[in-house]
């Protein structure tokens, strides 16, 4: 498989941590639900086709964990800054370099 086909539609980097947004969203919603169940209900994955397969569920994906996590981080930070900081501790995917 050609690496050009395994690039993220958000950042254009090669997807090196192939976990789809659906699988990540499930994990993220559990973590957020520990602090704010209402916010947790708003976390869901997005279907973006690509040539990379999720290592957890096998679905095709085209959005990297970093880009999806960054979107969720901004969503959380706008609503609960403390929860946004906790989120960074658990779902970093090199986000702290970008938001620091």
Mind explaining what this structure looks like?
Helix 3 packs antiparallel against helix 4. The chain has one domain. Helices cover 47% and strands 4% of the residues. A two-stranded antiparallel sheet has the order 1-2. A hairpin with a 6-residue loop joins strand 1 and strand 2. The chain has 100 residues and is mainly α.
List keywords for this structure.
4% strand; 100 residues; 47% helix; 2 strands
List the helices and strands and how they pair.
Elements: H1 21-33, H2 37-40, E1 52-53, E2 60-61, H3 65-79, H4 81-90, H5 95-99
Antiparallel strand pairs: 1-2
Overall strand count: 2
Residues in β-strands, percent: under 5%
The average pLDDT score comes to 89
What is the helix content? 40-55%
Q: Point out poorly predicted stretches.
A: none
Strand order of the largest sheet: 1-2
Order of helices and strands: HHEEHHH
What structural category characterises the helix and strand content? mainly alpha
Structure summary:
The protein is mainly alpha-helical. The protein has helices at 21-33, 37-40, 65-79, 81-90, 95-99, and strands at 52-53, 60-61. It has one domain.
């Amino acid at each position: 498989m050609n690496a050009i086909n395994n690039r993220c539609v958000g950042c254009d980097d090669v997807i090196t941590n192939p976990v789809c947004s659906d699988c990540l969203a499930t994990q993220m919603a559990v973590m957020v639900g520990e602090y704010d169940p209402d916010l947790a209900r708003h976390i869901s994955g997005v279907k973006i086709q690509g040539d990379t397969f999720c290592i957890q569920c096998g679905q095709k994906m085209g959005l990297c964990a970093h880009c999806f996590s960054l979107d969720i981080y901004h969503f959380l930070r706008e609503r609960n800054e403390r929860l946004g900081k906790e989120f960074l501790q658990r779902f970093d995917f090199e986000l702290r370099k970008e938001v620091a």
